[in-house]
Amino acid sequence: MKRLENKVAVITGGAGSIGAATARKFLDNGAKVVLVDLQEAALQQTVETLNSPHVSYVAADVTKSDDVQRYVNETVTRLGKIDIFFNNAGIEGVVKPITEYPEEMFDKVIAVNVKGVWLGCKYALPQMNDGGSLIITSSVAGVIGSPGTSAYNTSKHAVIGTMRSVALEAAPRKIRVNTVNPSAVDNRMMRSLEEGIGNGDGAGAKKALENTIPFGRYAQPDEIADMVVFLASDESKFVSGTVNLVDGASQA
């Protein structure tokens, strides 16, 4: 039997690199998957690329409670249950010192990365099957500080607090709640951050950032997805309330 046979999974940020890579691995392991993201065109393209009868999507804004309730309810209506919730949607903001950081951008980062995660937990948890798995994307930025990304770091620290509280609340139902904490991943988000960190010299910033990782490179989205699959599967059935670094020994 496949590791996620007959499981139903919801993935927010489903059109992004980590969301899409995780969806493919979930499908390969026997799950049915509902992708959630803001832009319907990006979701349609991702579904076409995945090319499976067991993947569908709901376009929704994770910062709006009505939208969150809708993607949860549509999943249950279509597929009857939720076993796995990958609470993954997030944005990076801009790279600026706190004295210059735009307040409206701070509010946006917190709305997506913190409120979106909180709302997802609030509305998905009651619909999840006992013994399920709820996985939240944090970051190495959730356990360390870095200059220029105060909003992002704040948000990724915050969701670890959310995870630890929800893990205790969900424990009587044997629902596991954990974070996955990637270091730099080779994707669009890092291209954006590299440009900000390097003041336009993205390639130089990338090389400098790679040099800070003992493995000497960025993670690939598939490598983050591998950890998510483990946390989603019954192989992690006694793992809850944990922070799971996928970082090439960056925090060793």
TrEMBL record:
It comes from the Bacteria. Gene3D superfamilies: NAD(P)-binding Rossmann-like Domain (3.40.50.720). Signal peptide: none annotated. InterPro entries: NAD(P)-bd_dom_sf, SDR_fam. Belongs to the short-chain dehydrogenases/reductases (SDR) family. This is SDR family oxidoreductase. The lineage of its organism: Bacteria, Pseudomonadati, Bacteroidota, Sphingobacteriia, Sphingobacteriales.
